[in-house]
Protein backbone atom coordinates (compact mmCIF):
# COMPACT_ATOMS: atom_id res chain seq x y z
CA UNK A 1 0.00 0.00 0.00
CA UNK A 2 1.37 3.41 -0.95
CA UNK A 3 1.00 6.18 1.57
CA UNK A 4 1.13 9.95 1.51
CA UNK A 5 2.24 12.12 4.40
CA UNK A 6 -0.84 11.27 6.44
CA UNK A 7 0.81 7.94 7.25
CA UNK A 8 2.72 9.64 10.06
CA UNK A 9 -0.11 9.25 12.53
CA UNK A 10 -1.69 6.10 11.16
CA UNK A 11 1.19 3.89 12.22
CA UNK A 12 0.70 4.55 15.91
CA UNK A 13 -1.94 2.78 17.95
CA UNK A 14 -1.60 5.24 20.82
CA UNK A 15 -1.63 9.02 20.96
CA UNK A 16 1.09 10.82 22.81
CA UNK A 17 -0.11 14.08 24.23
CA UNK A 18 3.06 16.13 24.44
CA UNK A 19 2.73 18.93 26.95
CA UNK A 20 2.78 22.40 25.45
CA UNK A 21 2.37 25.77 27.10
CA UNK A 22 0.47 28.32 25.08
CA UNK A 23 0.52 31.49 27.10
CA UNK A 24 -2.97 32.59 28.01
CA UNK A 25 -4.90 29.35 27.78
CA UNK A 26 -2.59 26.43 28.61
CA UNK A 27 -1.17 27.49 31.92
CA UNK A 28 1.45 25.86 34.12
CA UNK A 29 -0.15 22.97 35.93
CA UNK A 30 -2.54 22.06 33.15
CA UNK A 31 -3.24 18.35 33.20
CA UNK A 32 -1.60 16.43 30.36
CA UNK A 33 -0.72 12.76 30.16
CA UNK A 34 2.80 11.78 30.99
CA UNK A 35 3.19 9.01 28.49
CA UNK A 36 1.28 6.91 26.00
CA UNK A 37 -2.46 6.66 26.51
CA UNK A 38 -5.08 4.97 24.40
CA UNK A 39 -7.39 6.93 22.15
CA UNK A 40 -10.38 5.86 24.22
CA UNK A 41 -8.71 7.15 27.38
CA UNK A 42 -8.09 10.53 25.76
CA UNK A 43 -11.74 11.15 24.96
CA UNK A 44 -13.01 9.68 28.24
CA UNK A 45 -10.86 12.04 30.30
CA UNK A 46 -12.17 15.63 30.38
CA UNK A 47 -8.72 17.16 30.80
CA UNK A 48 -7.01 15.03 28.18
CA UNK A 49 -9.80 15.61 25.65
CA UNK A 50 -9.65 19.39 26.04
CA UNK A 51 -5.86 19.38 25.98
CA UNK A 52 -5.93 17.38 22.76
CA UNK A 53 -7.13 20.57 21.08
CA UNK A 54 -4.61 22.68 22.99
CA UNK A 55 -1.90 20.39 21.68
CA UNK A 56 -2.93 21.09 18.08
CA UNK A 57 -2.04 24.75 18.56
CA UNK A 58 1.56 23.67 19.16
CA UNK A 59 1.74 22.89 15.41
CA UNK A 60 1.76 26.67 14.89
CA UNK A 61 5.47 27.22 15.40
CA UNK A 62 7.13 30.62 15.39
CA UNK A 63 9.10 31.71 12.33
CA UNK A 64 12.14 33.32 13.92
CA UNK A 65 14.47 30.37 13.30
CA UNK A 66 14.06 28.23 10.18
CA UNK A 67 17.50 26.58 10.09
CA UNK A 68 18.23 26.11 13.81
CA UNK A 69 20.75 28.95 13.50
CA UNK A 70 18.53 32.01 13.38
CA UNK A 71 17.61 32.21 9.69
CA UNK A 72 14.36 33.93 8.73
CA UNK A 73 12.42 33.64 5.48
CA UNK A 74 13.22 37.30 4.78
CA UNK A 75 16.69 36.11 3.73
CA UNK A 76 15.03 34.04 1.01
CA UNK A 77 13.70 37.24 -0.58
CA UNK A 78 15.13 40.63 -1.50
CA UNK A 79 14.52 41.84 2.06
CA UNK A 80 17.68 40.40 3.60
CA UNK A 81 20.88 38.38 3.37
CA UNK A 82 21.79 35.78 5.98
CA UNK A 83 25.21 36.34 7.54
CA UNK A 84 25.76 32.56 7.70
CA UNK A 85 26.74 31.69 4.15
CA UNK A 86 26.29 27.99 4.96
CA UNK A 87 22.66 28.34 6.05
CA UNK A 88 20.20 26.24 4.10
CA UNK A 89 18.05 29.36 3.70
CA UNK A 90 20.44 30.23 0.85
CA UNK A 91 19.05 27.32 -1.16
CA UNK A 92 16.12 29.61 -1.92
CA UNK A 93 18.42 32.08 -3.70
CA UNK A 94 21.23 30.19 -5.40
CA UNK A 95 19.43 27.97 -7.92
CA UNK A 96 19.90 24.69 -6.03
CA UNK A 97 16.38 24.49 -4.57
CA UNK A 98 14.75 21.19 -5.50
CA UNK A 99 13.12 17.94 -4.34
CA UNK A 100 16.26 16.66 -2.63
CA UNK A 101 17.29 20.09 -1.30
CA UNK A 102 14.24 21.42 0.49
CA UNK A 103 13.94 24.22 3.00
CA UNK A 104 10.97 25.30 5.14
CA UNK A 105 9.38 21.92 4.44
CA UNK A 106 6.19 21.94 6.55
CA UNK A 107 4.48 19.03 4.79
CA UNK A 108 4.63 16.56 7.66
CA UNK A 109 3.79 19.11 10.35
CA UNK A 110 0.74 20.47 8.52
CA UNK A 111 -0.73 17.05 7.77
CA UNK A 112 -0.10 15.98 11.34
CA UNK A 113 -2.07 19.01 12.47
CA UNK A 114 -4.83 18.31 9.94
CA UNK A 115 -5.20 14.73 11.14
CA UNK A 116 -5.47 15.89 14.73
CA UNK A 117 -8.15 18.45 13.86
CA UNK A 118 -10.15 15.78 12.07
CA UNK A 119 -9.86 13.46 15.06
CA UNK A 120 -11.05 16.22 17.35
CA UNK A 121 -13.98 17.19 15.13
CA UNK A 122 -15.21 13.57 15.14
CA UNK A 123 -14.60 12.75 18.79
CA UNK A 124 -15.26 15.99 20.68
CA UNK A 125 -19.08 15.68 20.60
CA UNK A 126 -18.90 12.27 22.31
CA UNK A 127 -16.08 13.17 24.68
CA UNK A 128 -16.18 13.75 28.44
CA UNK A 129 -15.21 17.44 28.20
CA UNK A 130 -16.64 19.46 31.07
CA UNK A 131 -18.11 22.76 29.82
CA UNK A 132 -16.35 25.97 30.81
CA UNK A 133 -17.16 29.71 30.93
CA UNK A 134 -20.77 29.08 31.88
CA UNK A 135 -21.58 27.34 28.59
CA UNK A 136 -23.66 24.24 28.10
CA UNK A 137 -21.94 21.11 26.80
CA UNK A 138 -23.36 21.72 23.30
CA UNK A 139 -22.27 25.36 23.30
CA UNK A 140 -18.75 24.55 24.49
CA UNK A 141 -18.32 21.71 22.00
CA UNK A 142 -19.49 23.98 19.18
CA UNK A 143 -16.93 26.60 20.19
CA UNK A 144 -14.14 24.02 20.47
CA UNK A 145 -15.02 22.58 17.07
CA UNK A 146 -14.91 26.13 15.70
CA UNK A 147 -11.29 26.30 16.80
CA UNK A 148 -10.58 23.01 15.03
CA UNK A 149 -12.21 24.23 11.81
CA UNK A 150 -10.01 27.33 11.89
CA UNK A 151 -6.86 25.31 12.54
CA UNK A 152 -7.66 22.88 9.72
CA UNK A 153 -8.18 25.82 7.37
CA UNK A 154 -4.90 27.36 8.50
CA UNK A 155 -2.91 24.14 7.98
CA UNK A 156 -4.37 23.58 4.51
CA UNK A 157 -3.61 27.20 3.55
CA UNK A 158 0.01 26.85 4.69
CA UNK A 159 0.34 23.94 2.25
CA UNK A 160 -1.45 25.68 -0.62
CA UNK A 161 0.56 28.91 -0.40
CA UNK A 162 3.77 26.88 -0.68
CA UNK A 163 2.88 24.10 -3.09
CA UNK A 164 0.03 25.66 -5.08
CA UNK A 165 -2.42 22.91 -4.14
CA UNK A 166 -2.68 20.09 -1.65
CA UNK A 167 -4.50 16.86 -0.84
CA UNK A 168 -7.58 18.02 1.04
CA UNK A 169 -8.11 15.80 4.07
CA UNK A 170 -11.41 16.46 5.82
CA UNK A 171 -11.89 13.18 7.65
CA UNK A 172 -9.81 10.71 9.64
CA UNK A 173 -8.03 8.43 7.19
CA UNK A 174 -7.56 4.77 8.02
CA UNK A 175 -4.50 2.61 7.54
CA UNK A 176 -6.29 0.19 5.23
CA UNK A 177 -7.17 2.89 2.69
CA UNK A 178 -5.23 3.75 -0.43
CA UNK A 179 -3.40 6.87 0.67
CA UNK A 180 -1.60 7.55 -2.59
CA UNK A 181 -3.92 10.43 -3.33
CA UNK A 182 -3.63 13.13 -6.00
CA UNK A 183 -3.70 16.76 -5.01
CA UNK A 184 -6.92 18.70 -5.29
CA UNK A 185 -7.00 21.67 -7.63
CA UNK A 186 -6.22 25.16 -6.39
CA UNK A 187 -9.87 26.19 -6.76
CA UNK A 188 -11.03 23.14 -4.78
CA UNK A 189 -8.56 24.04 -2.04
CA UNK A 190 -9.81 27.63 -1.93
CA UNK A 191 -13.41 26.43 -1.66
CA UNK A 192 -12.64 24.01 1.19
CA UNK A 193 -10.49 26.44 3.16
CA UNK A 194 -13.17 29.10 2.75
CA UNK A 195 -15.81 26.67 3.96
CA UNK A 196 -13.76 25.79 7.05
CA UNK A 197 -13.28 29.50 7.77
CA UNK A 198 -17.04 29.99 7.55
CA UNK A 199 -17.60 27.03 9.87
CA UNK A 200 -15.19 28.59 12.36
CA UNK A 201 -16.84 32.01 12.10
CA UNK A 202 -20.24 30.48 12.87
CA UNK A 203 -18.98 28.96 16.14
CA UNK A 204 -16.25 31.16 17.64
CA UNK A 205 -16.20 34.26 19.86
CA UNK A 206 -15.91 37.39 17.74
CA UNK A 207 -12.50 38.74 18.84
CA UNK A 208 -9.69 38.03 21.32
CA UNK A 209 -11.32 40.02 24.12
CA UNK A 210 -14.48 37.92 23.80
CA UNK A 211 -12.57 34.98 25.25
CA UNK A 212 -12.08 34.80 29.00
CA UNK A 213 -8.71 36.30 29.96
CA UNK A 214 -7.18 32.86 30.59
CA UNK A 215 -8.22 31.75 27.10
CA UNK A 216 -6.88 34.68 25.09
CA UNK A 217 -4.81 33.55 22.15
CA UNK A 218 -7.31 31.01 20.89
CA UNK A 219 -8.89 31.26 17.46
CA UNK A 220 -11.64 33.82 16.94
CA UNK A 221 -14.09 34.85 14.27
CA UNK A 222 -11.80 37.69 13.24
CA UNK A 223 -8.88 35.25 12.91
CA UNK A 224 -10.93 33.10 10.55
CA UNK A 225 -12.06 36.21 8.67
CA UNK A 226 -8.45 37.40 8.31
CA UNK A 227 -7.37 33.98 7.04
CA UNK A 228 -10.18 33.97 4.48
CA UNK A 229 -9.28 37.51 3.40
CA UNK A 230 -5.66 36.51 2.82
CA UNK A 231 -6.71 33.34 1.00
CA UNK A 232 -9.00 35.26 -1.36
CA UNK A 233 -6.33 37.92 -1.94
CA UNK A 234 -3.95 35.18 -3.10
CA UNK A 235 -6.70 33.64 -5.25
CA UNK A 236 -7.34 37.02 -6.90
CA UNK A 237 -3.67 37.75 -7.60
CA UNK A 238 -2.01 37.26 -11.01
CA UNK A 239 -0.38 33.96 -9.98
CA UNK A 240 -3.82 32.34 -9.72
CA UNK A 241 -6.00 34.87 -11.57
CA UNK A 242 -4.08 35.58 -14.80
CA UNK A 243 -7.17 36.97 -16.53
CA UNK A 244 -7.54 39.64 -13.83
CA UNK A 245 -11.13 38.70 -12.98
CA UNK A 246 -12.31 41.75 -11.01
CA UNK A 247 -14.96 39.72 -9.17
CA UNK A 248 -12.21 37.77 -7.41
CA UNK A 249 -10.56 41.00 -6.32
CA UNK A 250 -13.88 42.32 -5.07
CA UNK A 251 -14.45 39.13 -3.08
CA UNK A 252 -11.05 39.62 -1.44
CA UNK A 253 -11.88 43.25 -0.65
CA UNK A 254 -15.22 42.25 0.85
CA UNK A 255 -13.55 39.62 3.02
CA UNK A 256 -11.08 42.15 4.40
CA UNK A 257 -13.85 44.69 4.96
CA UNK A 258 -15.71 42.11 7.01
CA UNK A 259 -12.85 42.14 9.54
CA UNK A 260 -12.79 45.93 9.53
CA UNK A 261 -16.54 46.19 10.11
CA UNK A 262 -16.41 44.12 13.31
CA UNK A 263 -14.74 47.02 15.12
CA UNK A 264 -12.70 44.51 17.12
CA UNK A 265 -9.28 45.57 15.83
CA UNK A 266 -7.39 48.80 15.31
CA UNK A 267 -3.88 50.07 14.64
CA UNK A 268 -1.82 49.85 17.83
CA UNK A 269 -0.25 53.07 19.05
CA UNK A 270 3.35 51.81 19.19
CA UNK A 271 4.71 50.07 16.08
CA UNK A 272 7.91 48.66 17.67
CA UNK A 273 6.03 47.28 20.66
CA UNK A 274 3.43 45.27 18.76
CA UNK A 275 5.56 42.14 19.28
CA UNK A 276 7.06 42.95 22.70
CA UNK A 277 4.48 41.57 25.07
CA UNK A 278 6.50 42.36 28.19
CA UNK A 279 5.55 45.98 27.47
CA UNK A 280 2.50 47.15 29.42
CA UNK A 281 -0.61 46.99 27.27
CA UNK A 282 1.10 45.33 24.31
CA UNK A 283 -0.07 41.76 24.95
CA UNK A 284 -3.22 41.01 22.97
CA UNK A 285 -3.24 44.60 21.73
CA UNK A 286 -6.01 45.48 19.33
CA UNK A 287 -3.80 45.10 16.26
CA UNK A 288 -3.04 41.44 16.94
CA UNK A 289 -5.63 39.12 15.41
CA UNK A 290 -3.89 35.76 15.82
CA UNK A 291 -0.43 34.75 17.00
CA UNK A 292 1.60 31.84 18.31
CA UNK A 293 2.39 31.16 21.91
CA UNK A 294 4.46 33.93 23.46
CA UNK A 295 8.02 32.71 23.57
CA UNK A 296 9.97 33.86 26.60
CA UNK A 297 13.38 34.09 25.01
CA UNK A 298 16.49 36.08 24.20
CA UNK A 299 17.37 33.91 21.20
CA UNK A 300 15.90 36.45 18.77
CA UNK A 301 18.53 38.93 19.98
CA UNK A 302 21.30 36.34 20.17
CA UNK A 303 20.65 35.43 16.55
CA UNK A 304 20.07 38.91 15.12
CA UNK A 305 21.64 41.71 17.18
CA UNK A 306 24.85 43.32 15.87
CA UNK A 307 28.01 41.40 16.60
CA UNK A 308 29.44 43.80 19.19
CA UNK A 309 26.44 43.30 21.46
CA UNK A 310 27.55 40.46 23.75
CA UNK A 311 28.60 38.16 20.95
CA UNK A 312 25.36 38.19 18.96
CA UNK A 313 25.32 36.50 15.55
CA UNK A 314 23.82 39.27 13.38
CA UNK A 315 22.06 36.74 11.15
CA UNK A 316 19.41 38.78 9.28
CA UNK A 317 21.04 41.58 7.27
CA UNK A 318 18.54 43.86 5.49
CA UNK A 319 19.33 44.76 1.90
CA UNK A 320 19.78 48.18 0.38
CA UNK A 321 16.75 47.42 -1.77
CA UNK A 322 14.58 47.28 1.35
CA UNK A 323 16.19 50.36 2.90
CA UNK A 324 15.50 52.31 -0.29
CA UNK A 325 11.78 51.45 -0.07
CA UNK A 326 11.32 53.70 2.97
CA UNK A 327 10.10 57.13 1.88
CA UNK A 328 11.07 60.57 3.17
CA UNK A 329 9.18 61.67 6.26
CA UNK A 330 9.30 65.35 5.35
CA UNK A 331 7.63 64.96 1.97
CA UNK A 332 6.11 61.47 1.93
CA UNK A 333 7.80 60.85 -1.41
CA UNK A 334 9.98 57.91 -2.52
CA UNK A 335 13.70 58.67 -2.37
CA UNK A 336 13.86 58.18 -6.15
CA UNK A 337 11.67 61.29 -6.54
CA UNK A 338 13.84 64.33 -7.20
CA UNK A 339 11.50 66.39 -5.02
CA UNK A 340 11.66 64.02 -2.06
CA UNK A 341 14.44 65.82 -0.19
CA UNK A 342 16.65 62.73 -0.03
CA UNK A 343 20.34 63.42 0.55
CA UNK A 344 22.67 60.60 -0.53
CA UNK A 345 25.39 62.05 1.72
CA UNK A 346 23.10 61.71 4.75
CA UNK A 347 20.91 58.83 3.60
CA UNK A 348 19.11 57.94 6.84
CA UNK A 349 18.03 61.45 7.83
CA UNK A 350 14.34 62.38 7.74
CA UNK A 351 13.22 58.96 6.59
CA UNK A 352 9.99 57.13 7.37
CA UNK A 353 10.33 56.33 11.12
CA UNK A 354 9.54 52.68 10.36
CA UNK A 355 13.06 52.45 8.93
CA UNK A 356 14.49 53.01 12.41
CA UNK A 357 11.93 50.65 13.95
CA UNK A 358 12.76 47.83 11.52
CA UNK A 359 16.45 48.18 10.60
CA UNK A 360 19.69 49.07 12.38
CA UNK A 361 21.90 51.25 10.22
CA UNK A 362 25.14 53.09 10.90
CA UNK A 363 24.51 55.58 13.67
CA UNK A 364 21.23 54.17 14.91
CA UNK A 365 21.03 53.27 18.59
CA UNK A 366 20.42 49.90 20.24
CA UNK A 367 20.59 49.35 23.99
CA UNK A 368 21.85 52.94 24.42
CA UNK A 369 24.87 52.35 22.19
CA UNK A 370 25.45 53.48 18.60
CA UNK A 371 25.55 50.82 15.91
CA UNK A 372 28.77 51.07 13.88
CA UNK A 373 28.47 49.39 10.50
CA UNK A 374 31.15 51.50 8.80
CA UNK A 375 34.27 49.68 7.67
CA UNK A 376 36.40 49.27 10.79
CA UNK A 377 33.45 49.96 13.13
CA UNK A 378 32.62 47.53 15.93
CA UNK A 379 29.76 46.06 13.86
CA UNK A 380 31.27 46.71 10.45
CA UNK A 381 31.57 44.79 7.24
CA UNK A 382 34.03 41.90 7.31
CA UNK A 383 34.93 42.30 10.98
CA UNK A 384 34.29 38.61 11.65
CA UNK A 385 32.41 35.70 10.10
CA UNK A 386 29.08 36.85 11.56
CA UNK A 387 29.41 40.55 10.72
CA UNK A 388 26.79 42.14 8.51
CA UNK A 389 27.10 41.34 4.84
CA UNK A 390 25.05 44.38 3.80
CA UNK A 391 25.90 47.18 6.25
CA UNK A 392 22.61 46.68 8.12
CA UNK A 393 21.16 44.57 10.94
CA UNK A 394 17.60 43.59 11.86
CA UNK A 395 15.84 45.79 14.44
CA UNK A 396 12.24 44.64 14.22
CA UNK A 397 11.18 42.08 16.88
CA UNK A 398 14.30 42.78 19.03
CA UNK A 399 13.94 44.02 22.59
CA UNK A 400 16.10 46.55 24.43
CA UNK A 401 15.32 44.62 27.64
CA UNK A 402 16.71 41.24 26.57
CA UNK A 403 20.10 40.26 28.01
CA UNK A 404 22.20 37.36 26.71
CA UNK A 405 25.66 35.81 27.11
CA UNK A 406 25.99 37.36 30.56
CA UNK A 407 26.12 35.93 34.06
CA UNK A 408 22.53 37.08 34.53
CA UNK A 409 20.31 36.96 31.42
CA UNK A 410 16.83 38.31 30.70
CA UNK A 411 14.20 36.82 28.42
CA UNK A 412 11.37 38.74 26.79
CA UNK A 413 7.93 37.46 25.85
CA UNK A 414 7.15 37.59 22.13
CA UNK A 415 4.82 35.76 19.78
CA UNK A 416 5.04 35.29 16.05
CA UNK A 417 2.04 37.23 14.78
CA UNK A 418 0.30 35.45 11.91
CA UNK A 419 -2.42 38.05 11.38
CA UNK A 420 -2.49 41.68 12.40
CA UNK A 421 -4.86 44.45 11.48
CA UNK A 422 -2.32 46.37 9.39
CA UNK A 423 -2.27 43.51 6.89
CA UNK A 424 -6.07 43.53 6.71
CA UNK A 425 -6.03 47.23 5.77
CA UNK A 426 -3.37 46.61 3.15
CA UNK A 427 -5.27 43.61 1.76
CA UNK A 428 -8.39 45.76 1.51
CA UNK A 429 -6.60 48.62 -0.23
CA UNK A 430 -4.92 46.35 -2.76
CA UNK A 431 -8.00 44.29 -3.58
CA UNK A 432 -10.27 47.34 -3.82
CA UNK A 433 -7.85 49.13 -6.14
CA UNK A 434 -7.66 46.11 -8.44
CA UNK A 435 -11.45 45.68 -8.38
CA UNK A 436 -12.56 49.30 -8.71
CA UNK A 437 -9.51 51.51 -9.26
CA UNK A 438 -9.80 55.22 -8.51
CA UNK A 439 -13.58 54.93 -8.09
CA UNK A 440 -12.75 53.69 -4.59
CA UNK A 441 -9.92 56.19 -3.98
CA UNK A 442 -11.22 57.60 -0.66
CA UNK A 443 -11.59 54.14 0.91
CA UNK A 444 -8.21 53.01 -0.39
CA UNK A 445 -6.35 56.05 0.90
CA UNK A 446 -8.18 55.93 4.23
CA UNK A 447 -6.83 52.41 4.81
CA UNK A 448 -3.28 53.33 3.82
CA UNK A 449 -3.28 56.52 5.86
CA UNK A 450 -4.36 54.66 8.98
CA UNK A 451 -0.91 53.03 8.86
CA UNK A 452 0.95 56.19 7.94
CA UNK A 453 -0.77 58.12 10.73
CA UNK A 454 0.13 55.63 13.45
CA UNK A 455 1.51 57.32 16.57
CA UNK A 456 5.28 57.55 16.23
CA UNK A 457 5.17 57.11 12.46
CA UNK A 458 3.17 60.17 11.36
CA UNK A 459 4.05 60.02 7.67
CA UNK A 460 2.43 62.57 5.37
CA UNK A 461 -0.92 61.25 4.25
CA UNK A 462 -1.49 60.10 0.71
CA UNK A 463 -4.09 62.59 -0.48
CA UNK A 464 -7.15 62.79 -2.68
CA UNK A 465 -6.96 66.49 -3.49
CA UNK A 466 -4.31 68.89 -4.75
CA UNK A 467 -3.08 71.01 -1.81
CA UNK A 468 -1.67 74.33 -2.94
CA UNK A 469 1.97 74.33 -3.85
CA UNK A 470 2.95 70.66 -3.52
CA UNK A 471 2.34 69.58 -7.08
CA UNK A 472 0.12 66.67 -6.07
CA UNK A 473 -1.81 64.92 -8.83
CA UNK A 474 -4.49 62.37 -7.97
CA UNK A 475 -2.97 58.92 -8.63
CA UNK A 476 -4.07 56.53 -11.34
CA UNK A 477 -4.89 52.90 -10.60
CA UNK A 478 -1.40 51.90 -11.71
CA UNK A 479 0.26 54.55 -9.52
CA UNK A 480 -1.88 53.48 -6.59
CA UNK A 481 -0.77 49.88 -7.15
CA UNK A 482 2.85 50.96 -6.78
CA UNK A 483 2.18 52.93 -3.60
CA UNK A 484 0.09 50.14 -2.07
CA UNK A 485 2.75 47.56 -2.81
CA UNK A 486 5.47 49.77 -1.38
CA UNK A 487 3.42 50.50 1.73
CA UNK A 488 2.98 46.76 2.16
CA UNK A 489 6.72 46.18 1.68
CA UNK A 490 7.61 48.72 4.37
CA UNK A 491 4.88 48.03 6.93
CA UNK A 492 5.11 44.22 6.80
CA UNK A 493 8.86 43.78 6.28
CA UNK A 494 10.40 40.61 7.76
CA UNK A 495 6.94 39.14 8.46
CA UNK A 496 7.14 36.70 5.50
CA UNK A 497 4.79 38.63 3.24
CA UNK A 498 7.33 39.87 0.70
CA UNK A 499 8.43 36.29 -0.10
CA UNK A 500 4.88 35.38 -1.13
CA UNK A 501 3.70 38.78 -2.40
CA UNK A 502 6.27 38.88 -5.18
CA UNK A 503 5.23 35.38 -6.17
CA UNK A 504 1.50 36.05 -6.22
CA UNK A 505 2.14 39.23 -8.23
CA UNK A 506 4.13 37.10 -10.73
CA UNK A 507 7.13 39.39 -10.45
CA UNK A 508 9.72 36.87 -9.29
CA UNK A 509 11.82 37.04 -12.44
CA UNK A 510 12.17 40.82 -12.15
CA UNK A 511 12.34 41.30 -8.37
CA UNK A 512 14.22 38.20 -7.19
CA UNK A 513 16.31 37.18 -10.22
CA UNK A 514 19.00 39.80 -9.76
CA UNK A 515 21.68 41.12 -7.43
CA UNK A 516 20.90 42.27 -3.93
CA UNK A 517 23.04 45.10 -2.62
CA UNK A 518 24.35 46.63 0.57
CA UNK A 519 26.04 49.86 1.64
CA UNK A 520 29.77 50.15 2.23
CA UNK A 521 30.29 53.04 4.64
CA UNK A 522 33.73 54.59 5.17
CA UNK A 523 34.71 56.99 7.92
CA UNK A 524 36.15 60.10 6.23
CA UNK A 525 36.60 62.22 9.35
CA UNK A 526 34.89 62.28 12.76
CA UNK A 527 31.15 62.21 12.07
CA UNK A 528 31.61 62.33 8.30
CA UNK A 529 31.06 59.22 6.16
CA UNK A 530 31.06 58.23 2.52
CA UNK A 531 28.48 55.79 1.17
CA UNK A 532 29.06 53.33 -1.65
CA UNK A 533 26.44 50.74 -2.69
CA UNK A 534 27.89 47.35 -3.59
CA UNK A 535 26.69 43.95 -4.77
CA UNK A 536 26.32 41.42 -1.95
CA UNK A 537 24.80 38.41 -3.72
CA UNK A 538 23.68 37.42 -7.17
CA UNK A 539 20.27 35.80 -6.78
CA UNK A 540 18.60 33.26 -9.08
CA UNK A 541 14.85 32.94 -9.64
CA UNK A 542 13.25 30.96 -12.45
CA UNK A 543 9.64 30.10 -13.29
CA UNK A 544 9.63 26.93 -11.20
CA UNK A 545 10.45 28.92 -8.06
CA UNK A 546 6.96 30.40 -7.82
CA UNK A 547 6.08 27.22 -5.91
CA UNK A 548 7.96 25.01 -3.49
CA UNK A 549 9.19 21.63 -4.70
CA UNK A 550 7.55 18.64 -3.07
CA UNK A 551 10.16 16.63 -1.23
CA UNK A 552 11.31 13.53 -3.06
CA UNK A 553 10.61 11.55 0.12
CA UNK A 554 6.93 12.48 -0.15
CA UNK A 555 6.82 11.63 -3.86
CA UNK A 556 8.37 8.24 -3.16
CA UNK A 557 5.52 7.52 -0.74
CA UNK A 558 2.78 9.00 -2.92
CA UNK A 559 3.64 9.36 -6.62
CA UNK A 560 0.13 10.63 -7.33
CA UNK A 561 1.04 13.93 -5.68
CA UNK A 562 3.09 14.80 -8.78
CA UNK A 563 5.95 17.26 -8.64
CA UNK A 564 5.48 20.95 -9.31
CA UNK A 565 6.53 21.99 -12.80
CA UNK A 566 10.24 22.49 -13.42
CA UNK A 567 11.62 20.51 -10.48
Q: TL;DR of this structure?
A:
The protein is of the alpha+beta class and 567 residues long. It has helices spanning 7-10, 39-44, 46-57, 107-123, 137-163, 186-201, 221-236, 246-262, 299-304, 320-325, 353-358, 421-436, 441-452, 477-491, 497-504, 508-511, 552-557, and strands spanning 15-16, 36-37, 80-82, 288-291, 295-297, 316-318, 359-360, 365-366, 369-370, 393-394, 412-414, 417-420, 515-525, 528-538.
Characterise this structure.
By secondary structure, this protein is of the alpha+beta class. 34% of the residues lie in helices and 10% in strands. The chain contains 17 helices and 14 strands. It has helices at 7-10, 39-44, 46-57, 107-123, 137-163, 186-201, 221-236, 246-262, 299-304, 320-325, 353-358, 421-436, 441-452, 477-491, 497-504, 508-511, 552-557, and strands at 15-16, 36-37, 80-82, 288-291, 295-297, 316-318, 359-360, 365-366, 369-370, 393-394, 412-414, 417-420, 515-525, 528-538. Strand 8 (365-366) and strand 9 form a beta hairpin. Helix 5 packs parallel to helix 7 and helix 7 runs antiparallel to helix 8. The chain is globular and about 75 Å long.
Amino acid sequence: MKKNICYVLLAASAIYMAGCKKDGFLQDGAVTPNGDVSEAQVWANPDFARNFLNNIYATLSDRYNLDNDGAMLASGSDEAVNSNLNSNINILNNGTWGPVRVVDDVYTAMYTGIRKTNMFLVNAPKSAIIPSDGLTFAQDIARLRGEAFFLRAFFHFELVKRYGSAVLVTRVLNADENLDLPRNTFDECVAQISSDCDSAIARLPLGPTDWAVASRGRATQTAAMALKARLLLYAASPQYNPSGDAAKWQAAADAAKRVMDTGKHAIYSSYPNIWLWNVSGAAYNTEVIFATQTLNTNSIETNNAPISYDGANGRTNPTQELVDAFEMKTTGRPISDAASGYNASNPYANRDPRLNFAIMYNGSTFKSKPVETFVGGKDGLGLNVNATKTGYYLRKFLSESAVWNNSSNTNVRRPWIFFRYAEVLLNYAEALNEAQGTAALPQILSSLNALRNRSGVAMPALQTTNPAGNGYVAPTKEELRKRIRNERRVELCFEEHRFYDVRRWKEGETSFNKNVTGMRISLVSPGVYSYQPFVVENRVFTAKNYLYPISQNELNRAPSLKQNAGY
